[in-house]
Amino acid sequence: MADVVSIGLDGAAWHKLDRLIADGRLPNLAALTDAGARAQLRSVTPPVTCPAWRCSTSGKNPGKLGVYWWLNLDRDRGEIVSPDATSFPTADVWDYLGEDGYRCAALNVPMTYPPSEINGTMVSGFGAAFDLNEDHERPLTYPPPFEDELVEKYDWETQVDDVTTREGLEAAYEMIRSRFELLSDTLEADYDYVHLTVFAVNALQHKYGDGEETARAWELIDDRLGRIDTEETLLVLYSDHGHSRIDHTFAVNRWLLDNGYLSLSADASAGSSLGTALSEKAYTTLESLGISPKQASVYARRILPSPLYDAIVPASFPISSAELASEVDWSETDALAFSQGPLYLNRRRLGDRYEAVREELRRELSDLTHRGSTVLSDVRPAEAVYDGPFVADAPDLLLSSSEGWEIYGGITPSPFESQVMSWTSGNHPLGVLLLNGPGVEQGELSECSILDVAPTVLSYLDSPIPTDMDGYPLETAFSDGTLSVTERDPIEVESTRGNAVEDGLRDQLEDLGYLE
Fold it and tell me: What is the model's pTM?
């Protein structure tokens, strides 16, 4: 059995898990919580899978990694690019442990494709957008031959299907089972540190919220947690972000368009009139029924013959987040935003007006209300959020939504909508942390940072903490003398800037709702 077992539950939130615990549906998590130390775990900004998982395993804020969301704007190339593992100029917890002689397994961590050579085994997680049964340029695993075992023994799938279908829902459950089967076998082998991320449950929360479909997934996970012996093993259970209900949507690029900060190409502007797509009446009717107009269009595409679909929905309005980049006239645009809050300014166009326009936008967005409700809880410049050598590449403003609001990057009829996206639950900055095992002091901890996970693991295993980590070991969670807090020089790693968005990754992100 490993000395440390780290399990990442993508999107887990205490306020949701506690309800299931109170109903008696998660008995193993209840027992682990009663005997362990738990805390609210604050994510990075924006609180999203990419880059949060790699922030947690490196102990660094995004300003030291140069990755801020699923997609980044490469200002030098004037392109929207998607990061992969090579975009992160950092060593991770398993690299430092490996340097100290510990054998490690990093399983299914998002944004670790292509895999790196470690002292042990790596299985890349979400971001590897291909079918293992099809030809692919680089292996999913290190060592490369282990990929064959994944397919043959675990029927491994890399992609989360559309979980709104019966087949996709069952595939998500099977994906969760396969991850824990691999974990179980790995714990029987000779490893000192094992980390597994379970991503599929996040997709279920987005689509089903607190519904029975999601509860069933948590019960599958709870059953597997009950099989981990923590008598001699430290269990570190945590999430990259939390989840909360979505009641309203702020279509930020619609607001930028209406207020003169964003310009669409001539064709897109013509297509964005309501008369050439879903009529205003149809759009409003769908909204009043609690149906996402965009998702209704997707369903219509699936079931209607193409001529009939084209007659009913002849244009691409609302313009989705995935389509927007190609529809923007960047030469006439001052600002462009992505879903979940990263906002970029056109620095070359603004020139000397850059600081004034950024402050004007910050002030206007901070004061934004709709029907008496504050839309955004926070609007901050990059340098107030991040620290590190890549802050200059970061979004110029970071928007955080108020409770009940979601920030949407597409173009809709109005800046303020009710559930444009197919999501019923959106990302929240507070996730979960649970520690259970030797030396852990039972109790409730004060709020911790996701950046504290890596240095805590290192110090628990008597491995020095690199001086470039931003997080701190959680000494108050352990009895005196359990953690060994010393320092070391960082391992230097080079990176790339990201690549053009591949169709496979684009399809995955659209299925999950990030690019609706």
Answer: 0.91
User: Do 69 and 477 form a contact (C-beta atoms < 8 A)?
Assistant: no
User: Where does 262-320 have alpha helices with state H?
Assistant: 266-271, 280-288, 293-303, 306-312
What does the pLDDT look like over 217-269, one tens digit per residue?
999 999 999 999 999 999 999 999 999 999 999 999 999 999 999 999 876 55
* 430 in Cβ contact with 15 (< 8 Å): no
Distance of CA 462 to the CA centre of its chain: 30
What is the CA 225 to chain-centroid distance, rounded?
Answer: 23
Contact present, 310 and 345 (Cβ < 8 Å): no
Span 137-168, pLDDT tens digits: 899 999 999 999 999 999 999 887 789 999 99
127 DSSP assignment: T
**What per-residue confidence (pLDDT) applies to 278?**
47
How many angstroms separate the CA atoms of 15 and 256, rounded?
34
How many whole angstroms separate alpha carbon 446 and alpha carbon 430?
12
CB–CB of 112/100 below 8 Å?
Answer: no
| DSSP line for 437-467 | STTBPPEEPPPEEGGGHHHHHHHHTT-PEET
H-helix segments, 36-134? 49-58, 93-99
Residue 105 phi, psi dihedral angles, 5° rounding = -130, 120
**Could you tell me if 1 and 184 are in contact, meaning their C-beta atoms sit under 8 angstroms apart?**
no
Question: What is the average pLDDT score of the chain?
Answer: 89
* Burial of 355 per CB tally in 10 Å (0-12, 13-18, 19+): exposed
Query: And the tokens for 45?
Result: 């900004």
359/355 Cα distance (integer angstroms): 6
Which one-letter DSSP state was computed for residue 469? Answer: -
* 3-class SS shares of the chain: helix, strand, coil, % to 5: 40, 20, 40
> What ranges make up the beta strands (E) of 288-437?
335-337, 342-345, 369-370, 373-374, 376-381, 397-401, 405-408, 416-417, 425-428, 430-436
Q: Which residues contact 409 (CB under 8 A, 6 or more apart)?
A: 252, 253, 321, 324, 337, 338, 339, 340, 515
- DSSP state, residue 405: E
Q: Which residues contact 290 (CB under 8 A, 6 or more apart)?
A: 418, 419
